[in-house]
Specification:
With 400 residues, this protein is of the alpha/beta class. It folds into 2 domains: 14-26 and 303-398, Aspartate Aminotransferase, domain 1; 46-299, Type I PLP-dependent aspartate aminotransferase-like (Major domain) (Aspartate Aminotransferase, domain 2), CATH 3.40.640. Helices cover 32% and strands 13% of the residues. The chain is built from 12 helices and 13 strands. It has helices spanning 36-49, 62-74, 89-99, 127-133, 149-159, 182-192, 211-214, 288-302, 304-315, 318-323, 353-362, 384-398, and strands at 24-25, 83-86, 111-115, 136-140, 164-168, 195-199, 218-222, 234-238, 328-329, 343-346, 365-366, 368-370, 373-376. The strands form 3 sheets. The protein has a 7-stranded mixed sheet, with helices on both faces. Strands 9-10-13-12 form a 4-stranded antiparallel sheet. A two-stranded parallel ribbon has the order 1-11.
Length: 400
């Protein structure tokens, strides 16, 4: 057996999922499977909504209140009122772009700092605001040589200067799993007066996240990956920089006293406090919100650090075997090295990533190919059998 036996404090949770036997799903970075608890919450919500009799005005709000509190706890934010319900990362980043013209000291010629090959929703958001304000994108290139993480982090910090208006950085790169030192980035951004926005989609829920140490202005997460919830539902933290800002839409639910249905025609100019103005319309999500609530409760019970420990030990024996085939893996370097829940495996020059991915798929091993790397994303439902299947197929395909 090539994979190390798992003996971490948190044992395998495969029995909490309904993944079929013989399928080796190492692809949580694309989409998480639902746990049994999340499935059950969905079934119960559907049954409950089949008969809307007795629905109360407060029912349009209470589910989101619980979810916002759970997410606030997960990212160690002290204020659930700073959490908004969003449908997607693109929506969450659009809120940042919409309000960037309000940033004190914003001026033409400033830069928005990104890392190379960032996810499209974190790039497209800035086109229009750059044109309108005369801003420029400053893209921090990934180093060619290994280890990449320490030098990439230094390049990122060097790129943040007096002409920086906004920094957009993820906890881990969505393709390669390389970590960025968010505490150092946050400190540098505050020193020069830049806003700091984080796309936490590929980390929050599986990697410890401490907002009180990072102190970013925004944290935006899709719900269907490491939050392990449903598609088309996400959450975002918006800090004091966004207080009294401009929302993307004018939902009636986001106004003060909107739960008093008998007074809805007394049009209310004031918004609910803090991040509530940025909630997507129909934020109740009667079917999906209970599923996300169940997922967040489960993650808080499992704890992201224990997920890191489990996936680290699970995969530890695979990396030397794959490196012996000519593959490359970013080393562990703390907050500037690789994560354990999402790892980029760079293939040797003679291997075609799509051909390799197809061979894996033919053997019921699910991963994602991203440029020259395979993105391997295990979770608590994975076992040594899954890791051994991955190594076996890669040995057959790459080693020939």
């Amino acid at each position: 057996m090539l994979a190390s036996p798992v003996s971490s404090a948190l044992s395998c949770q495969k029995d909490q999922f309904t993944l079929p036997e013989g399928v080796h799903y190492l692809n949580c970075a694309t989409r998480s499977p639902f746990s049994r608890k999340v499935e059950q919450a969905g079934h119960e919500a559907l049954a409950h909504q089949a008969n809307p009799f007795g629905l109360r005005p407060d029912d349009f709000f209470t589910g989101a209140v619980r979810v916002r509190a759970l997410f606030s706890e997960l990212i160690n934010s002290p204020d659930p009122d700073r959490i908004a319900v969003i449908p997607s990362v693109s929506y969450g980043m659009a809120v940042v772009a919409r309000n960037l013209p309000r940033k004190p000291g914003i001026r033409a010629g400033q830069h928005i700092v990104l890392v190379q090959s960032e996810f499209p929703s974190d790039v497209y958001a800035w086109d229009r605001v750059c044109t309108e304000l005369g801003l420029h994108l400053s893209v921090v290139a990934m180093p060619d040589d290994f280890p990449k993480g320490p030098q990439w982090n230094e390049r990122l910090l060097d790129a943040i200067g007096p002409d920086t208006a906004l920094v957009v950085v993820p906890p881990v790169h969505w393709m390669y799993g390389i970590r960025f030192d968010l505490e150092a980035v946050g400190q540098r951004a505050r020193e020069i007066g830049a806003w700091f926005a984080i796309d936490g989609t590929q980390a929050v829920g599986a990697l410890p996240f401490d907002w009180q140490a990072i102190r970013s202005d925004a944290v935006i997460c899709a719900g269907y990956k490491w939050l392990m919830g449903p598609y088309s539902l996400g959450l975002a933290y918006y800090g004091p920089a966004f207080d009294d800002g401009i929302p993307l839409e004018e939902s009636w639910m986001n106004r003060l006293d909107s739960n008093q249905f008998h007074r809805l025609m007394d049009y209310q100019p004031q918004y609910r406090p803090k991040a509530a103005r940025y909630n997507v319309g129909e934020a109740t999500h009667f079917l999906q919100m209970p599923m996300l609530e169940a997922a967040l409760m489960q993650l808080l019970d499992w704890q992201p650090q224990r997920i890191q420990d489990y996936t680290n030990e699970l995969m530890a024996g695979a990396w030397p075997a794959l490196e012996a085939l000519g593959c490359h893996v970013e080393p562990e370097n703390g907050s500037r090295g690789r994560s354990h829940h999402l790892v980029g495996l760079w293939l040797p020059d003679h291997a075609d990533p799509m051909t390799v991915q197809q061979a894996l798929q033919a053997n019921n091993v699910s991963i994602s190919a991203r440029r020259r790397a395979l993105r391997i994303a295990p979770h608590l439902y994975n076992t040594s059998d899954d890791v051994n299947a991955l190594v076996r197929v890669l040995t057959d395909v790459i080693g020939t």
